[in-house]
Design goal:
Layout lengths: L6 H4 E3 L3 H11 L18 H17 L3 E5 L2 E6 L11 E7 L9 E8 H8 L24 H4 L6 H6 L15 H21 L5 E6 L7 E9 L13 E10 L2 E12 H8 L14
Parallel strand pairs: 1-5
Antiparallel strand pairs: 2-3, 3-4, 4-5, 6-7, 7-8, 8-9
C-alpha cells in the first residue's frame, strides 16, 4: 500500500519528467498545457504536471490506486483525469524496481489505455479499474449558493491596498489605491450579481490541507472584470477566492480569502474540468 503522496518522490520517471509529460500530452486529447499569458520562466506543460501530481496525491488519499503484478513484478496504476481524443481513459503505470537514487523503488514509465493497464496489473480482461479520484464529496460544492453569496462581506480596502496583490491589477490602477478600491468593489458587485444569475460562473479549485496531505477543501473563484467594456468570462482580470463555511452540513457563508491571477485559476481548476467545459478561464 502506497502512503507517499508525492509522485516524484515515490517513483523514478523514465527518461525524465519533462519527456514523460511530453509523451502524455501526445497521448491525451489536445489542449493547452500552459497557463494563459504564461510567465517567461514558467516550466513547459506546467498545467499538465500539476494535474498529474495533484491527482496522484488525491488518489492515494481516497484509495483510487490499482495494485497488481506483471510477470512477477509488482505494479500500480492510477488515472490522472486524462482521456484520449476518442474519450478513452488514460492510466499511468509504475513497476517496482531495486532501490534507486533517493530510495525510490518504483519506475513510472507506462502511459496506456485501460485494457493495456489491466494487462500490466495482471487483471482479467473485464476487471474494473478505479477511475480518476474525486476532489469533492457533494457536487453542490462546485457551484455557488446565490442566497449565501448575496450576504458575502468583503474588505475591499484590504484587498485593494495590500502590496501582495498589487501586481494583479492593471497597470493604470496600480498607482491609485482609492480608484483601485472603487473599481474592485464594483467588480465584486457585478460578480455577485452574475453569480446569483448563473451559479456556474465560479471556478472551483482545491486546496490541500498540508504539503503532504491528500485531503483538503474546495474553494470557488469569482471572475472580476476591472477594465473590460463587456462582462465576458474570457476577459476577467483576476479572481476573488472564497471559502464556503458550513454549519451542520449546510453552507452558511462565503469567506473572502485572497486574490489570484486568472492563470492561477486555470492552473488549479483543471483538476475539475477540461477547457471545453463551462469552467473559466480558457486559454
Amino acid at each position: 500500500m502506497i502512503i507517499e503522496t508525492d509522485l516524484l518522490k515515490l517513483a523514478n520517471v523514465r527518461p525524465n519528467w519533462d519527456a514523460f509529460l511530453e509523451r502524455l500530452a501526445e497521448t491525451a486529447a489536445p489542449e493547452p498545457w500552459s497557463k494563459p499569458n504564461p510567465d517567461p520562466h514558467e516550466k513547459p506543460r506546467l498545467v499538465l504536471s500539476n494535474l498529474v501530481r495533484h491527482t496522484f496525491r488525491r488518489a492515494v488519499h481516497v484509495g483510487a490506486i490499482a495494485y497488481g503484478d506483471h510477470d512477477g513484478t509488482e505494479t500500480f496504476a492510477f488515472s490522472p483525469r486524462l482521456r484520449t481524443a476518442s474519450f478513452e481513459a488514460i492510466y499511468l503505470v509504475a513497476h517496482k524496481t531495486p532501490p534507486a537514487a533517493g530510495g525510490r523503488i518504483w519506475k513510472l514509465d507506462s502511459i496506456c489505455r485501460e485494457p493495456e493497464a489491466r494487462r500490466f496489473l495482471g487483471y482479467a480482461p473485464k476487471q474494473k479499474l478505479p477511475g480518476a479520484p474525486s476532489f469533492w464529496e457533494d457536487p453542490a460544492d462546485l457551484i455557488l449558493d446565490p442566497e449565501v453569496l448575496r450576504r458575502i462581506d468583503v474588505d475591499y480596502e484590504h484587498l485593494a491596498t495590500n502590496d501582495r496583490f498589487l501586481h494583479l491589477f492593471p497597470t493604470e490602477l496600480q498607482s491609485d489605491p482609492m480608484l483601485r478600491t472603487f473599481v474592485l468593489e464594483r467588480a465584486v458587485e457585478v460578480a455577485i450579481e452574475r453569480g446569483c444569475e448563473n451559479p456556474r460562473i465560479a471556478a472551483p479549485v482545491f486546496t490541500f490541507d498540508s504539503a503532504t496531505s491528500g485531503n483538503g477543501q474546495v474553494r470557488l473563484c469569482l471572475p472580476l472584470h476591472l477594465k473590460a467594456t463587456t462582462v465576458d468570462s474570457r476577459t476577467a482580470d483576476l479572481a476573488l477566492v472564497i471559502d464556503p463555511k458550513f454549519d451542520n452540513g449546510e453552507i452558511v457563508r462565503y469567506e473572502p480569502k485572497t486574490l489570484i491571477s486568472t492563470g492561477d485559476v486555470y492552473l488549479q481548476s483543471r483538476i475539475f474540468e477540461t477547457p471545453s467545459g463551462e469552467v473559466w478561464p480558457r486559454p
